[in-house]
Amino acid sequence: MFTQVINLDRSADRLAAISRDLQLCLPEWQRLPAIEPDADYVTTLPIYHRAKARKYFGRDLRRGEVGCFQSHRAALMALVQSGADHGLVLEDDVILTRPAVDAIIAAVALLDARDPDWACVNLVHAQVLRRRHFAAIGGHDLWRSYQFPLLTSALLWRRDKAVAFLEWTATTGIYAPVDNQLRDWISLGNKGYAFDPPPVGLRAFDSTIQVAEQASTVPAHSNKFTIHEIRQKLPLYWRSYRDHLLHR
After folding, report:
1. pLDDT band, residue 248 (cuts 50/70/90)
2. Model-level pTM?
3. Measured distance CA(188)–CA(185) in Å, rounded
4. In which element (H, E) is residue 151 found?
5. DSSP H or E run through 205
6. CB 21, CB 95: distance < 8 Å
7. What is the phi-psi region of residue 201: left when phi exceeds 0, alpha when psi lies from -120 to 50, beta otherwise?
8. Roughly how many angstroms between the first and final C-alpha of the chain, as a whole number?
9. 71, 104, 132: which is closest to 200 by C-alpha?
């Protein structure tokens, strides 16, 4: 499968660590330089949808969040151009092992045989809400995830569904971090899966997304949902609950 590692030019330590893993278990791969928007991205980046971001989050997305989303879109574009049927998109903080690769390869074969309309598999995080068991693979359970897990550190994509996600995001614009917006897309009837326990781990690197780049206008955390959280989560929860109930 077409394998890419998203890596910032300044993150040589991360690249060295994942390179060692890949050399042992998946030697054919390529580095995709991570994208960093310029400082004026809020007003100069056409795909960034500022009004939606403020509606759903009460703030602008941070520069690192937008760059991460752009990097994932670039990886999917490269997958489409490669002509490969499947693609593995990795961020540079993952831990990849031979058993994990074996589980991924087995999942591809099983999904293609039993659910040829699958779209994406989260390999690094599980969500226990609104899911159905699909198969047991090498000590891991593969679940159909109606409420797709957050974190996009390791994703397995089908090429045609990568095309569909790219087209959808080109229409909607970037209005959320990539994991949130991917979860939204899955809840619109696209088929997402996840392993539990996840076969791919994470190294303890500090985040390269600078959380203090912009001050958030979201109120301090409380037990009550803000209006922005209700706008963001209520439609997602409803769609995922409905489809899980109807076994769509």
Report:
1. confident
2. 0.91
3. 5
4. none
5. none
6. yes
7. beta
8. 28
9. 104
Strand order in the sheet with 154-158: 30-33, 2-7, 86-91, 154-158, 118-122, 191-196, 140-145, 131-137
Total residues belonging to the chain? 248
* Residue owning tokens 């060295």: 16
7 by DSSP, 3-state: which? strand
Which residues fall within 8 angstroms of residue 51, CB to CB, at 6 or more apart? none
User: Is residue 234 over pLDDT 60?
Assistant: yes
160, 162, 164, 169 alpha-carbon torsion, rounded to 10°? -170
The rounded distance, in Å, linking the Cα atoms of 99 and 58 is 42
Helix, strand, coil shares of the chain as percentages rounded to 5? 45, 20, 35
pLDDT range class, residue 208, cuts 50, 70, 90: low
